[in-house]
Amino acid sequence: MRTITVLLLATLVTACASQALQQREADAAIFVGQPEDELVRQNGVPTRVVEAGGRRFLAYEDTRTQYARPIPSFTPRWSRFGHSMEVRPEEMVILTCETTFEVAEGKVAAFRLHGNGCG
After folding, report:
1. Rg from Cα positions in the chain
2. Is 43 in contact with 60 (CB distance < 8 Å)?
3. Residue 117, class by beta-carbon neighbours within 10 Å (0-12 exposed, 13-18 middle, 19+ buried)?
4. Rounded distance, CA 111 to CA 101, Å?
5. Which residues neighbour 34 within 8 Å (Cβ) at sequence distance 6 or greater?
6. Helix (H) or strand (E) holding 4
7. Is the pLDDT of residue 32 over 80?
8. CA 109 to CA 97: how far, in whole Å?
9. CA-CA distance, 5 to 1, in Å (whole number)?
10. DSSP 3-state of 67
11. Closest C-alpha among 58, 45, 63 to residue 100
12. Coil, helix or strand at residue 112
């Protein structure tokens, strides 16, 4: 029974992550073909700007903190009072997603998403 519950939970989390990733990709794709100044106008000043090979790369970083409640362990812990369930504290997880836009000849040519918080 526990295996089925874990599989259903994993499927649900994967589906939600996939939708979030698709939304981020759609939001970034809007800027492909647009002038660089429009990208900056709508997203603000980038976190980093790098110039290489006649192209500019503008990186925007999104970082958030999330608390994850671990799945309780049902491993029996025997004591003179019977068995008990191990309860672990919540874990702090830092999620980061960096969106990097490649600009060539003044227009956004491509984008790339990178990080554990993109999806």
Report:
1. 22
2. yes
3. buried
4. 4
5. 107, 108
6. helix 2-29
7. yes
8. 20
9. 6
10. strand
11. 58
12. strand
pLDDT score of 5 more than 80: no
Neighbours of 103 (CB within 10 A): 21
| Three-class DSSP category at 17 | helix
Q: What is the pLDDT of residues 65-117, one digit of tens each?
A: 988 877 765 555 556 666 566 666 788 889 999 999 999 999 999 999 999 99
| Tally of helices (H runs) and strands (E runs) in the chain | 2, 6
- Torsion region of 68: left, alpha or beta (phi above 0 gives left; psi -120 to 50 gives alpha): beta
How many of the other CB atoms lie within 10 Å of CB of 75? 9
Query: pTM for the full model?
Result: 0.69
d(CA 101, CA 113): 9
Tokens encoding 58: 């503008």
